[in-house]
Amino acid sequence: MKQERSNGNADKIDNGTLEPPPGPAPLWVACHTLLAGHEEEFLSCWKKVEAAFQEDDVHDLRVASRRLREGLALFSPCLPAKKSRQLRKQLKKVTTLLGELRNTDEAALFFSALTPEETPHSRNEVGELLAQLKDERERAHKKLRKDLKSLNLNPLQSDLAALPLEQNLFDNAAVDHFMSVALFAAGAIMERARTLAELLPRAVHQADSEAQHQLRIAVKKMRYRLEIIAPLLKRDYQELHGALKGYQEVLGKLHDIDVFRQMLQERIDDRPGRRELLHVMAQKRRRLHATFLEKLKINPLGSIGERVRDAL
After folding, report:
1. Smallest Cα–Cα separation from 40: which of 68, 8, 21, 66?
2. CATH code, 70
3. Residues 55-99: pLDDT tens digits?
């Protein structure tokens, strides 16, 4: 149910936003250079939410927390293992806290966008759902404000700042700290690409919603990984990023409908209005899946990993 809006900070990233590591930088230098900007973005988003608690800022903080988690996962072979795991766990807690409010908002947007022409016999059911979601949003809003206040940003900020100081270049057999960062990034991108390749054959079947859900998560992680290594790319960043974003959006909407369908069945008893809504949602899902298949023909998802690797 978690859909990213187009005005988030993710869309402001391009391969000219951050300076690439100077020259053929070794991995141990480049990993902290590439992480630094995303650490700053996360902290900046947090402070904006604390100051004003605006919806877009809450969304941006959630995206920033996800991207920084992916950055820590990407460079985990050359970071202190225990500290890296702890930081990812702390960031996941932030992401989870922000999720409930976003989920409620997306459900309200979906049902409120259904037109009278689409739902001539289910306006009462739509009204019931929207009333419930309004109450839930108010409760989620209050809970989130309280939960965020209970979290202390200072320890997390200190741990992020100390991360380079705890790195031991000669006590990690998982990776050569002096290897080319571009070579490391190529391997990391292909690691994510293999996951996409494994999930894609199942996801093309309309009924396999679980595979589509898992593919959505994998595409999102690939997109974040691309955004992190963006300064290293020599070409095609905007095209590759746009393709991943398009896949993420259509797969996200497919997952939304699956979640909203379950919500409808749990909250509204079986009657003609509910059956009409389920029919409308099934039609929307078929159209979205057809759009997904069309994207695969125009810009094959299976080749994006290789294209990123070749652009490094």
Report:
1. 68
2. 1.40.20.10
3. 889 999 999 999 999 999 999 988 888 889 999 999 999 999 888
- Same domain? For 93 and 203 the reply is no
Statement: residue 3 has pLDDT above 50: no
* 277 in Cβ contact with 122 (< 8 Å): yes
- Could you tell me if 174 and 225 lie in one domain? no
Task: Please check whether residues 52 and 162 belong to one and the same domain.
Answer: yes
H helices of the chain, in order, are 27-52, 55-74, 81-112, 123-150, 153-162, 181-203, 209-228, 237-267, 272-298, 304-311
122 plus 103 within the same structural domain: yes
**165-191 pLDDT, tens digit each:** 777 666 666 788 889 999 999 999 999
* Encoded tokens for 45: 């988003």
Q: Let me know if residue 34 belongs to a domain.
A: yes
Cα→Cα distances 111→224, 256, 302, 307, Å: 29, 11, 33, 38
Cα–Cα distance measured from residue 130 to residue 225, given in angstroms and rounded to the nearest whole number: 36
DSSP 8-state code for residue 299: S
Q: Side chain identity at 20, as an amino acid letter?
A: P
Provide the domain limits for residue 247: 181-312
The candidate with the shortest Cα–Cα distance to 310, out of 245, 247, 242, 239, is: 239
Q: What is this structure's pTM?
A: 0.89
Q: What is the mean pLDDT of the chain?
A: 90
Place of tokens 């997904």: 292
**140 and 29 in a common domain:** yes
Interval 19-37: pLDDT, tens: 555 446 789 889 999 999 9
Count, residues in the chain: 312
Tell me the CA distances in angstroms from 67 to 9, 62, 123, 150, 310, one per residue in order.
Answer: 10, 9, 39, 23, 23
How far is it, in rounded angstroms, from Cα 160 to Cα 158?
A: 5
Dist. CA 243–CA 306, nearest whole Å:
14
